Recover the amino acids of this structure.
């Protein structure tokens, strides 16, 4: 286990406890240790993205401390449950060194045993206060059979028990709901494909990290699970060891691009529902703007239960990534594209042959295109609500 | 304090043959300030306006009405600066985008790009290519799924959709749809009264999406809106619906009038962990008074599981409720399928051999899930054999669905040069169930469920082409 960050015992106040696991190196899967391959590697290979993706998540967690001037993102800000601990396990080709506010820290491998120990200690920290918030992140191989199974570094090590080093995250969540009173967020960046091979493999029934105790009442105030992809679908990462699509979308959404201010609250809160919607939206828009292949469209899925418990409480309105365009494109350079906030600010791009991209605070705007020469028709949309994370509009100039 | 009265003036979804007039839809509304801060929220329906109280210093407020599809309509309300107790009225009408008043009820449940929002003159959908899409109706009774003749009470066809009305008795009912390009799938129908089915070409750009969307209603507007929001995990909107006149609890208490609406209330209370607000005996009554639908039994089972087993007896009750549920057919609502999966996963350990067979059915159902909004939907050839294997073709000549070329390329070995690589390669087959593919009947699990057999030829099938354009046909 590697507890890379902990605020000294603060059990009297609630905090947010993060457990992040990334498995890129699988010694017993294809491309791993030639002499130690699993009997049935299921066609699964080594992954470059998970360690990079986890580092991206850590950078977000510690953003205010690591990149203070100006902060790259608000980071994990929660005035009801400030960041209290971060535990990390990473399996990669090279030893993983985490950058923390307290300096560098070597990180242990994400073997099944290490994951077990880390989960138990995360659970113990979570139990210290009923208002604690738990964040569980996993990036690596996953397979959906009846439940969702995630594979640890040493998956396939034992020919006698090939599934011994996987774990059942679905039942782990069901167990945690009976052990932890606070809110929980599970971010699962792994495939959820249904494999007949797996279904037909005897004993393909890995255990959860904590067995559900059915004599206990469900006590968790809320549970949000956001999956990188839908059931039976694949998750993707760009080639060459970049941040996976899902983690990119997740961290983007958590970096000030979602949140609502509900009646009676003073902050812009990011709840499971708003976060899940933002992640789905970012994945969708990024796919369109990068002209992704239709067969590789990734749609995240979520499971939301209980009362909303915010993972973030932001002091400023969230931002919206605006992409404003004009059709036909031949007329773009003849127009000023603008957004006029009902609060008074005006933002524009003057006569450029490109889409107008800008980040603006959420709220209500008049959106339009105006020909400075006055020859072309004025196009405008009143009372457009800019809802994070994206607002995209292609206006039409006719005739 | 200032107030906004939000009126909804949508046309009600009516059923002329039964003279069934509903109160019309109900949708959540929010009052927002210029930054999007939520000032107040409520629900507006045709019969009851939302009454939103906003801070006295408000001068400009935006009212957002949200449909289950996610589409929102916005209106502005302006107040005088120096008048503290002013009331402003705002009204939403449905005339704008709706091309056809008879099918407009389905628009809030469909993709925002649905062709139903376009006028007939703008449509060029060539619905004729779907004329040979067939429909079958299945009824679950005495432990058997039996095919019934599909005899709509009313039929209607526009340039964008087919629609028909049924009157269904108190049983579990499934509609099956299939065709040479349309993957065979089932959609649960609301039972115990009138049901309306609308079928329209999908507006989704997703290559995985089914070609035809199926939308169903049992004319229970509020309960169905609540479930549609839940199905999309729009829990806040569902919460607004549920709080509307304490609707979730109210729906529950009205169970003897309408058990399907009571089920909707119970699903919401389970989702937000407020099941303990309701006495256990209510769950018990719901499960034991309405044995013709599966949902109340799975709801009571989950209620036991979430309360924790105090004794072996309570575990036994949960197990028997799960078995009861599976012996009543499939849940009407997709929320019930998720709960079935949860119950089967938690009760798998220590299951008897007969229970294990039932749990395998639940696993197959989970793997075969399809999307029909709040309604349960799954792929497969037979109602009791949900299967992730996908089939197309006529009922008498089924064939395995071959993936579109673009989708076939998702196998990583075929796309080594693409910029993205999957975190896991595609498996050889997506199926969990390879059983019974050539048989029309078999026994399964503890309940001895079997598919009713009937020898029908193609002339007996009901095709979408049977629905004449723009006409009503009585039985």
């Amino acid at each position: 286990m590697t507890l890379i960050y902990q605020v000294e015992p603060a059990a009297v106040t609630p905090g947010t406890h993060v457990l992040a696991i990334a498995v890129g190196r699988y010694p017993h899967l294809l491309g791993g240790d030639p002499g130690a391959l699993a009997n049935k590697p299921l066609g699964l290979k080594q992954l470059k993205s998970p360690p990079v993706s986890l580092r991206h998540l850590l950078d977000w967690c510690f953003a205010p401390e690591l990149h203070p001037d100006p902060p790259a993102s608000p980071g994990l800000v929660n005035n009801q449950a400030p960041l209290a601990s971060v535990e990390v396990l990473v399996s990669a080709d090279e030893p993983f060194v985490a950058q923390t506010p307290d300096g560098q820290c070597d990180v242990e491998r994400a073997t099944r045993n290490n994951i077990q120990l880390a989960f138990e200690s995360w659970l113990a920290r979570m139990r210290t206060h009923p208002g604690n918030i738990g964040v569980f992140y996993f990036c690596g191989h996953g397979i959906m059979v009846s439940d969702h199974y995630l594979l640890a570094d040493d998956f396939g090590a034992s020919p006698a028990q090939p599934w011994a080093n996987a774990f059942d995250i679905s039942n782990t969540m069901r167990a945690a709901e009976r052990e932890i009173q606070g809110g929980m967020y599970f971010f699962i960046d792994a495939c959820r494909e249904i494999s007949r091979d797996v279904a037909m493999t005897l004993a393909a029934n890995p255990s959860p990290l904590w067995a559900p105790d059915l004599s206990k009442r469900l006590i968790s105030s809320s549970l949000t699970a956001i999956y990188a992809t839908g059931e039976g679908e694949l998750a993707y990462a760009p080639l060459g060891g970049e941040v996976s699509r899902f983690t990119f979308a997740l961290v983007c959404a958590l970096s000030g691009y979602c949140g609502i201010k509900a009646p009676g609250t003073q902050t812009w809160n990011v709840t499971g529902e708003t976060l899940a919607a933002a992640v789905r939206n970012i994945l969708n828009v990024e796919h369109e703007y990068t002209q992704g292949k239709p067969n590789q469209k990734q749609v995240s899925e979520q499971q939301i239960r209980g009362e909303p418990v915010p993972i973030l409480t932001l002091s400023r309105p969230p931002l919206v990534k605006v992409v404003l365009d004009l059709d036909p494109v031949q007329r773009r350079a003849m127009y000023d594209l603008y957004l006029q906030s009902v609060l008074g600010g005006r933002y524009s791009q003057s006569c450029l042959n490109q889409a107008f991209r800008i980040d603006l605070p959420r709220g209500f705007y008049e959106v339009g295109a105006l020909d400075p020469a006055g020859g072309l028709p004025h196009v405008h949309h009143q009372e457009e609500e800019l809802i994070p994370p994206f607002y995209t509009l292609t206006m039409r100039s006719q005739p | 304090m200032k107030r906004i009265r939000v009126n909804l003036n949508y046309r009600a979804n009516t059923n002329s043959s039964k003279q069934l007039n509903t109160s019309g839809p109900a949708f959540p509304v929010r009052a927002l300030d210029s930054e999007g801060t939520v000032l107040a929220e409520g629900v507006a329906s045709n019969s009851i306006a939302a009454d939103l109280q906003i801070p006295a210093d408000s001068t400009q407020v935006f009212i957002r009405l949200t449909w289950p599809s996610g589409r929102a309509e916005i209106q502005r309300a302006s107040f005088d600066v120096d008048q503290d107790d002013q009331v402003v009225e705002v009204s939403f009408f449905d005339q704008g985008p709706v091309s056809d008043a008879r099918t407009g009820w389905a628009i809030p449940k469909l993709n925002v790009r649905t062709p139903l929002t376009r006028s007939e003159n703008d449509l060029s959908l060539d619905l004729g290519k779907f004329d040979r899409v067939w429909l079958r109706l299945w009824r679950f009774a005495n432990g058997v799924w039996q095919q019934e003749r599909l005899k709509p009470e009313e039929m209607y066809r526009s340039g964008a959709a087919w629609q028909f009305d049924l009157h269904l008795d108190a049983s579990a009912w499934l509609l099956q749809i299939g065709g040479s390009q349309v993957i065979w799938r089932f959609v649960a129908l609301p039972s115990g009264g009138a049901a309306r089915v609308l079928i329209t070409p999908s507006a989704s750009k997703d290559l995985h999406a089914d070609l035809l969307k199926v939308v169903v209603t049992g004319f229970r507007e509020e309960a169905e809106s609540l479930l549609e929001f839940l199905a999309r995990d729009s829990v806040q909107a569902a919460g607004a619906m549920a709080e509307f006149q304490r609707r979730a609890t109210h729906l529950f208490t009205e169970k003897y009038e309408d058990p399907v609406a009571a089920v909707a209330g119970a699903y919401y209370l389970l989702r937000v962990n407020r099941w303990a607000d309701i006495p256990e005996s209510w769950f018990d009554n719901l499960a034991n008074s309405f044995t013709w639908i599966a949902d109340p039994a799975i709801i009571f089972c989950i209620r036991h599981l979430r309360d924790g087993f105090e004794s072996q007896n309570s575990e036994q009750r949960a197990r028997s409720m799960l078995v009861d549920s599976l012996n009543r057919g499939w849940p009407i609502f997709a929320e019930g399928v998720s709960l079935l999966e949860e119950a089967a996963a938690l009760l798998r350990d220590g299951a008897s051999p007969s229970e294990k067979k039932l749990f395998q059915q639940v696993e197959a159902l989970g793997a075969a899930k399809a999307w029909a909004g709040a309604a349960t939907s799954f792929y497969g050839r037979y109602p009791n054999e949900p299967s992730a294997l996908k089939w197309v073709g006529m009922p008498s000549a089924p064939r395995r669905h071959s993936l579109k070329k673009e989708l076939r390329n998702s196998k990583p070995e075929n796309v080594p040069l693409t910029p993205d690589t999957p975190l896991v390669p595609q498996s050889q087959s997506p199926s969990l169930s390879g059983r019974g593919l050539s048989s029309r009947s078999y026994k399964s699990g503890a309940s001895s469920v079997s598919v009713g057999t009937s020898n029908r030829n193609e002339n007996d099938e009901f095709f979408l082409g049977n629905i004449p354009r723009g006409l009503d046909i009585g039985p």
